[in-house]
Amino acid sequence: MNEFALIRKYFAPLAEAFPGSLNLSDDAAILDIPEGSQLVITKDAISEKVHFLPGTDPALIAKKLLRTNLSDLASMGATPLCYFLAVALPKPISEDFIARFAEGLAEDQKQFSIHLAGGDTITSATPVFSLTAHGLIPKGKALRRSGAKAGDGIYVTGTLGDAALGLLDAREGKKNALTERYHLPQPRVNQGVELRNVASSCIDISDGLLQDAGHVAKASNVAMDIHLEQLPLSQEAREKIAAQPELLPLIYSGGDDYELLFTLPEDATPPFPATLIGRVGKGEGVRLLEHGKEIPVQRLGYSH
Amino acid sequence: MNEFALIRKYFAPLAEAFPGSLNLSDDAAILDIPEGSQLVITKDAISEKVHFLPGTDPALIAKKLLRTNLSDLASMGATPLCYFLAVALPKPISEDFIARFAEGLAEDQKQFSIHLAGGDTITSATPVFSLTAHGLIPKGKALRRSGAKAGDGIYVTGTLGDAALGLLDAREGKKNALTERYHLPQPRVNQGVELRNVASSCIDISDGLLQDAGHVAKASNVAMDIHLEQLPLSQEAREKIAAQPELLPLIYSGGDDYELLFTLPEDATPPFPATLIGRVGKGEGVRLLEHGKEIPVQRLGYSH
């Protein structure tokens, strides 16, 4: 099956509900941006052996790629609109792979109200996938890393460290709630939208809590104190760390959480369930405290 | 050098003149679209051994990637605005490669008035690069593949087949005007803009003249007659084909021309030098004629 046939059979159905895609039948897509809106755009790429293990279900690869991008849109408070996809696969391109990859995308398009609008399919010795996601935000309302102020509370959605712990289990061939968190991030799209007029800063945690908190501290020109005992852990993470205490640092230094880290003015409360993990102060840098005492951190986070 | 340092040193300078990039320091870019404009978006990817030969100057790889995308914008009549870039390189990522790649981008950004607005750098066993280019067009003015009418003249910019002939020479280690055309497409950005209110249809020739003409014929629901003796050839292509007549089909079936194929109403003339190569008729499909007689075509074009 050649490139054009693959596009018509598997990718065009993902684009048909989005008029700007021109049904993937022209040289480019055409987007109308509603008056009073800005476009928020992000691009993430993943490759085999680095971001997913060989033999991973193509539907999961597709969803993980889409969701990591959705998480970036969420961190800016944007509403998902459309995406562009580059697929690089070894020759001959497996129709089964593409079929399953497109199935994964179709499921997530429904869940997150986003549509394929264009892309490219090429051959390459190693599988590599790249996605550019577009979202909408009312003018001037995008959440930024800058904006945190001394006195603000620091919050996170969900629980931390599950994906990093899950990667360890996945490498041993296990399947459980933790490996699911590793394979399938839950981008906090709705929460991002709800934070638009509320949060003073926001970022999604993809490289580890402390490293991403460091990005906010730097962009906002503030210090951040984070309290270890306040970090939200899942039951499964708690059990795994109880059995292997040396894994504790993965909670604050592990990657792939895709939770939102945000700051709120001192007197504000989150518009949805979230955990207060610390407080913004004057100065610079991020400190991790255990019962009020700073603890040394070996490795701040995951640098790709 | 880690990912963040690479971005700051080599990629942030490519983004600094474009405010929406937020200096590549946030989770996503924020784009303002002028009232009365639409956004035209395209995405192309390239991989080593498929789209460029190993050892190719990284600056040339970067330029070719950017220019193939610019060619898609040109085919819609759009003015270049900004682009998002995914770079996948073997570990450890070579700083020299990135430095030279960014140099190539910097040169072309100046030439084509476009800016980096975001992206991702990852590791991968094989080098793969993906780019999403954004352009602006006044509302409703985008050139499309559909729109050609019986009686319209069919035109092309520049000369045909040089890149396909140049690839043969490049494989033999030669360097000449043809290999330059293969390595470095000349996207017809200005011509695309000039065609906005003039052309009835437009496409860029990337997969071979006849195949791309076929896309226009199909989208416009018309037939196209193209006259072999009218096809514009460079002096170098003429000489090469005189020496090896069996290479003639590369003129109409070879890829990588990145010239514009467009149609104009019968009484219109092109707003810039271009070659009339045939005429739109009723019916369907593309015919290649030599002195009025249809000649059989073995291979329509390049299917990736």
Report on this model:
Two copies of one chain form a homodimer. In chain A, 54% of the residues are buried. The first copy, chain A, has helices spanning 3-15, 58-76, 95-112, 162-171, 177-183, 189-194, 209-220, 235-243, 250-253, and strands at residues 29-31, 37-47, 79-89, 115-123, 128-138, 153-156, 201-205, 223-227, 259-264, 275-281, 285-290, 293-294. In chain A, the strands form two sheets. A seven-stranded mixed β-sheet of chain A has the order 7-9-6-10-8-11-12. In chain A, strands 2-5-3-4 form a four-stranded mixed β-sheet. In chain A, helix 1 runs parallel beside helix 3 (95-112), helix 2 (58-76) packs parallel to helix 3 and helix 4 (162-171) crosses helix 5. In chain A, helix 3 links the parallel strand 3 (79-89) and strand 4. The mean pLDDT of chain A is 95. Chain A has 304 residues and is of the alpha+beta class. Helices cover 32% and strands 26% of the residues of chain A. Chains A and B meet through strand 1, strand 2, helix 2, strand 3 and strand 4 of A and strand 1, strand 2, helix 2, strand 3 and strand 4 of B.
